[in-house]
Amino acid sequence: MAQNTSMEEFEALLNESFEMDTPNEGSVVKGKVIAIEAGQAIIDVGYKMEGRVDLKEFANPGEAPDIAVGDEVEVYLRAAENARGEAVISREMARREEAWDRLEKAYADDQRVEGAIFGRVKGGFTVDLGGAVAFLPGSQVDVRPVRDAGPLMGLKQPFQILKMDRRRGNIVVSRRAILEESRAEQRAEVISNLTEGQTVEGVVKNITEYGAFVDLGGVDGLLHVTDMAWRRVNHPSEILSIGETVKVQVIKINKETHRISLGMKQLQEDPWDLVGAKYPLGSVHKGRVTNITDYGAFVELEPGVEGLVHVSEMSWTKKNVHPGKIVSTSQEVDVMVLEIDAAKRRVSLGLKQTMRNPWEVFSETHPEGTEVEGEVKNITEFGLFIGLDGDIDGMVHLSDLSWDERGEDAIQHYKKGDIVKAVVSEVDVDKERISLSIKALGGDKFAEAVGGVKRGSVITVNVTAIEDGGIEVEYEGMKSFIRRSDLSRDRSEQRPERFSVGDHVDVRVTNVDSKSRRLGLSIKAREIAEEKEAVEQYGSSDSGASLGDILGAALKGSDD
């Protein structure tokens, strides 16, 4: 009977042990540290199961393991038994599961979570969120790019979860969102205490090409390069350095965007208030070239006061060259004040006005008739351009090249670079023109030759050629042509062949053409004039009656 009872008890205990709930693999269970040896913690998870966990799984990044015998911990049961009969457990996986539950709730409630940056990866950093590892993109570390993230490593700080996917084990967090939120609150508080026109002190935080960001105590303001000084500032680093404390004026506050515009020059005296008195029109001043453009050069008269020398006011002679070939940056030059527009803060300056007009100088030193010498600079269809003193040019028109040749033929004798002599025939200062004449170098031979010859004069010429239409003759080196019809009063004598080269013939001047440089000559006209003069003086010997009597009688007879 007793034997039967003990068997029943044993069977009940056996059934009870089978019915006992054992933890499922893949779940989190509680255990107790019963020993620490060889860098591992031996944990009793109940159900007569023990397992080992590396001590490093009990340590936060950058910290020593926090574990002791007797501590109760939660571990993740990966397998109930391994080849050595021990449970396969993990503290890290338990922490991860616990962390994911906590993080999902925080993400759903849009709450911040605490974590520590512990590693650097491509494109950003890794963050320990109390068991779960998240990715922190580089762009989400701070409101501005961070060059050295060393001071942030291992530091516990809040983060905002941007995205998470438990199935893929993916969490993305942002530190920047936390900073921007607190920054916005701080900015709103600081901005509420600022007013436009107020003078404040700040620290230069960052410098860019277009200006500098100044920290006003929790809020940044932009100090644009054009508001740093009244003078031209090419780059903010010329007058500011990072970390420098500066006094600035609040120019504008945008309440909606929280943007603050600052100025430094507004705290200084505006030099334009005295420009009109210091720089009267027509006055000459020294200045420094600060900038060169295609249309001119800017010259600084004093810090904050710049004027433009337009390209047309830079040189008397260089008309179509770039200003950079006349002046250079930082060069000191003398300029004349031409115009002031105080409203637009503009000063028009002249460079050439500080030098004498080279055409005026030339006119004074080279009156008409002066002989000059220069190089042929250019040849055009209407004449030659000759380089003269003062870097100016004079022009020899085709008609002023030669007395004897047509201009189109005479110009063929010249080429660029030739050194030629000419005579100044006219200087027009207003139009900046100088007219020269090469043919006038030896004087006007025609005028000299026919100086005493007038229309009706009788001169002696030398026959130089016999042609079918008449004869060519020469008078004092000047050639002329007598047509066949002018060779004699008698038609029968109008034969060129009756003359010979070298004959001397008396002719009457019928025309003096200075423009074409020709004399109109006629033997016939001379004969008629001589006969008329003889008749008037002596009368006719025919029948004792004068030619007038004969003509008078003939006319009277025709009337009857």
TrEMBL record:
GO terms for cellular component: ribosome. Coiled coil: none annotated. The keyword Ribosomal protein applies. Gene3D superfamilies: Nucleic acid-binding proteins. InterPro entries: NA-bd_OB-fold, Ribos_protein_bS1-like, Ribosomal_bS1, Ribosomal_protein_S1-like, S1_domain. It comes from the Bacteria. Residues 26-92, 110-176, 197-265, 282-352, 369-439, 456-524 form the S1 motif domain. Keywords: Repeat, Ribonucleoprotein, Ribosomal protein, RNA-binding. Belongs to the bacterial ribosomal protein bS1 family. Binds mRNA; thus facilitating recognition of the initiation point. It is needed to translate mRNA with a short Shine-Dalgarno (SD) purine-rich sequence. NCBIfam families: PRK06299.1-2, PRK06299.1-5, rpsA. This is 30S ribosomal protein S1. The lineage of its organism: Bacteria, Pseudomonadati, Pseudomonadota, Alphaproteobacteria, Rhodobacterales.
